[in-house]
Design goal:
The complex is a heterodimer. Chain A is α+β, with helices and mostly antiparallel strands. Chain A has 4 helices and 7 strands. Chain A has one domain: 2-Layer Sandwich (Beta-Lactamase), CATH 3.30.450. By secondary structure, chain B is an alpha/beta fold. Classes of the chains: A alpha+beta, B alpha/beta. The complex binds guanosine-5'-triphosphate and magnesium ion.
Chain lengths: 178, 194
């Protein structure tokens, strides 16, 4: 999948509608390939939605590592003059495999599947899912919601309180203000 | 920042930057130990056999539901060793706030400065800069002898007059305070740019 030319955005919002549509694409992908798990995350490693049985799999850590891994191989591609990056990453294990590819510039799709599932099939259905998700994201960008309505001073005050309540003991420290 | 409306999640990325051995990983380890376990994920660390960060450390924190939304903070540390330049660039991608962990020891001043310049360069690569991204300065290792005074550190490193916190990360002193400051700073910035 070629990388989009545009630079990474610093803010991105995903509508509920787009979220549901992407979740449906993942469900279909998982059902047609009988993969164990399909995870859609952003390129910074934030898991967004998934289909399948994560069971004992820690999706937050998996997504952070997927993102790091993907970014590292993209740099490797650059070093060997492969400016478009690799089409996908395939990690082969004793019992389970992982397939990882990008969705445009800002997102990643990763699929965990058993050794009995053919890589070729995963590739075909992953390509199809990437196209569908790209379409959904394109459409979603035109109808972004507003976040100002809740991200206000009150939000920050409440967050500060929640923060203070989250740590074991109040920590004393010297502080300098410049 | 990434907002997932369906899950009512706001995701923010905070990166701990600074020269090798300044105490970035130690900050994350202390946060991991001190926060209510139900509010954090696993501490993911990718390190060399010598306990140096090889690629990154990662820890996700949540603070429950606020005005119907779940703010999540994704904390990363970078590898400070000079030759991991590529990893640092990768981890800075999409950053919302930075904690610069400086080593207060007098003979580490050059390394602090080099790392700060490296940060600025990498931010520019991302279309950002030290002036546009919220950041705070942690003066770590205040427990050691032969350290620079806070005034000296301010003069050499804090030319943009960002908030500073004195710390002894191995004992946890100043660590939570630093985290609180950067979160406040990031949230205020988010509001400004909205
Ligand atoms: N005396 C003292 N030692 C500290 C302090 N903070 C960290 N250290 C020690 O400094 C060493 C390096 O700390 P790390 O947290 O691994 O440093 P780092 O910044 O993650 O280093 P890299 O991963 O190589 O970039 C460890 O032995 C820590 O115990 C401090 O406040 N005082
Ligand atoms: Mg480290």
């Amino acid at each position: 999948m070629a990388l989009a030319k545009n630079a990474p955005k610093s803010q991105f919002m995903l509508s509920t509608e787009a979220f549901n549509e992407i979740s449906d694409v993942l469900k279909e992908l998982e059902a047609s390939t009988r993969a164990e798990l399909a995870v859609f995350c952003d390129a910074n490693g934030v898991p967004i939605t998934h289909a399948g049985k994560p069971r004992a799999i820690d999706l937050t850590s998996l997504s952070a590592l997927n993102a790091g891994n993907y970014a590292a191989t993209r740099e490797m591609a650059r070093l060997i003059g492969e400016s478009q990056g690799f089409k996908f990453l395939f990690l082969e294990g004793e019992n389970k495999n992982i397939y990882l590819c990008n969705v445009g510039y800002d997102f990643l799709l990763s699929i965990v599947f058993a050794k009995t599932v053919a890589l070729g099939m995963i590739r075909i259905y992953a390509n199809k899912a990437v196209k569908q998700i790209s379409g959904i994201l394109e459409k979603a960008q035109k109808q972004e919601q507003m976040a100002e309505e809740f991200l206000d001073v009150e939000f920050n005050t409440l967050l500060g309180k929640a923060f203070d309540a989250s740590f074991r003991k109040p920590n004393s420290s010297t502080k300098t203000e410049s | 920042m990434f907002i997932n409306w369906a899950q009512k999640e706001i995701n923010l990325k905070i990166v701990y930057y600074g020269p090798g051995l300044s105490g970035k990983t130690t900050n994350l380890e202390y946060i991991y130990q001190q926060i209510d376990p139900s509010l954090r994920g696993e501490l993911v660390t990718l390190k060399t056999r010598e306990e140096r960060t090889l690629y990154f450390d990662f820890l996700q924190l949540e603070f429950g539901r606020i005005k119907g939304m779940h703010p999540k903070f994704n904390l990363y540390t970078i590898p400070g060793q000079v030759y991991y330049a590529q990893s640092r660039r990768i981890i800075l991608r999409g950053v919302d706030g930075i904690v610069f962990v400086a080593d207060s020891q007098r003979d580490r001043m050059i390394e602090n400065l080099d790392s700060l310049l490296d940060l600025e360069e990498n931010l520019i690569n991302e279309g950002k800069s030290l002036e546009s991204v919220p950041w705070v300065l942690q003066y770590n290792k205040r427990d050691l002898p032969h350290i620079s005074t806070v005034e000296e550190l301010d003069r050499k490193l804090n030319f943009l007059r960002v908030p500073t916190i004195e710390a002894v990360a191995v004992r946890g002193t100043g660590v939570i305070e630093t985290l609180k400051r950067i979160i406040q700073h990031v949230m205020a910035h988010v509001q400004e740019v909205m």
